[in-house]
Amino acid sequence: MTALAAPPTKQPATEKAQVPGRRRRKSGAGRTMKGGKLAYAILIAAVLVSAFPFYWTIVAASRSNADLAKVPPTLLPGPNLIRNFEAVMEEADIGKALVNSFIVSGSITVGTVLCCTLAGFAFAKLRFRGRGALLAITVGTMMIPPQLGVIPLFMLIAELQWVNQLQAVILPGLVSAFGVFFMRQYLVQSLPDELIEAARVDGASTARIFWSIVVPIARPGMAVLGMLTFMAAWNDFFWPIVALSSQEPTVQVALRQLGGGYVHDQSVIMAGTLLGTLPVLLVFGLLGRQIVGGIMQGAVKG
Amino acid sequence: MTLTASAKPVSPPRPPAVRRAWRKVSPYAYIAPFFTLFAAFGLFPLIYTAFVSLYRVELQTPGDMEWRGLGNYTALFGDEFFWTALRNTFTIGVISTVPQLVMALGLAHLLNYRLRGRTFLRTAMLLPYATSVAAATLVFAQLFGRDFGLINYVLGLVGFGPVDWQTGTVASQIAVSTIVIWRWTGYNALIYLAGMQSIPSELYEAAEVDGASRWRQFFHVTLPGLRPTILFTVVVSTIGATQLFGEPLLFEGSISGGISHQYQTLGLYMYEQGWGFFHLGRAAAIAWVMFLLILVLVGANALIARRRSRKEAGR
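YS: structure for the whole thing
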């Protein structure tokens, strides 16, 4: 019994903990092969292609519109960054959009992680009638793009008089079939049944088990789901531009307005793009490694 | 087994009958928050779309619905721009998906080598995935500018005349596809890399013993081992391509997808009908057509995959 209380080893952590020699033998294909010069050259070229548009955004956002029309083009940042930021704040209200996006993405992240952990736990470890069918429905709709439901959704939101209000974007954003499936898979793998049985023998209720055993064990999975959810919510495009307008914009709504042809100054548009992208880039810079891990884990499980 | 048997004699704090009943019901409390939201904002809209597509519904008065039968569909199939959008969705889908997945496969193969700065390389390749459609499209629209765009400048250096990336049908579709390729190649490469790492190394060792070259190993061990992963990415990319929307919308900022609808996709056509012309019923019909299209395409993918693996097994 006491041995069961020890925390279970988590799948994701093992890769790092392994001895280099063993790891090489265990994992696939080319690991034993060292990358040649050509491999590095191609990969670095790919990295440059990935990164260049970001660099270019900074260049364009810090120049004037006239600079951008020069031949040959300017490739170094200029002195106009602050002025362009001010211009875009005025023309597209990016400041309000940023605040709104933080509210929307933050609420969606917290709500989704909570709902999905609860449901994922039930699907992974509790027995109840209709479990299989409900899980099948959830997984089955995972592949159906939500975009196909926007018309009734819009009619519903209009009926509730929520058009142009943030809850119109937050509440539908909480629905994540992928999240339920992800948390279920995570808990099936990392939460041993014996641990729950032991707690039950000790007289713990299911709610107690959830808060004192499931949540601590699920935390790494919740973190990965949270990061992916935040990025997806921040970048969501179709539904926000339908449900909101420039009076109550998220960042993507403001960017759509910027690209809609009312602002002609390219350097101002690029300044807005830069401001709207910075928060996700920041998250990515801090947690990029975990996000990469999360996506690769999800791929193997999915 | 013995564990549950020995647990029985221990007397629980609550009467067993009540406790057992509660244990039967309480799981539903855990799935309730998700399923309430899911039913209201996920399942209901998807199903109701089919219903709405049979009515005339206007954007300004979404409460008034007037029965039209299949009228929305006949109007749809009689509109030449629907067929244009369908064709564009297909061509842009092919132009964006095929190179994207092939390049991702190649990059994954390289990333699977033993490399210095492995984490950096992987993270940097995922960077485009972190940007929004809107941001990426605005930047690329600038780069693809006809007169002062960087891409035309570089093409000019190697002797290609300026390409009109906006008005040309092929050119504009290539430009729109480029945005998709840029955003998703690194993501797919990581998915493939994860798949490659789960192929047991014994297979490679056996191949090596048999004297198979690196090249043959890639084709006869890596690719077959990746088949489920490849099917997954093809399905996901197909679904993504079918509903492509943000890129064509913001490429020039017009909801018609260019002056002669040359790069208007089905997703954009639906938006134009619903929020440009206020015909929500018609837009719902388009959504339903897109849904059926996805079903057919995904079904075809699965069928081809199954037939191929059966053929392989028969050999």
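YS: worth flagging: DSSP finds 13 helices and two strands in chain B.
IM: good catch. Also Residues 1-11 of chain B have pLDDT under 50 and may be disordered.
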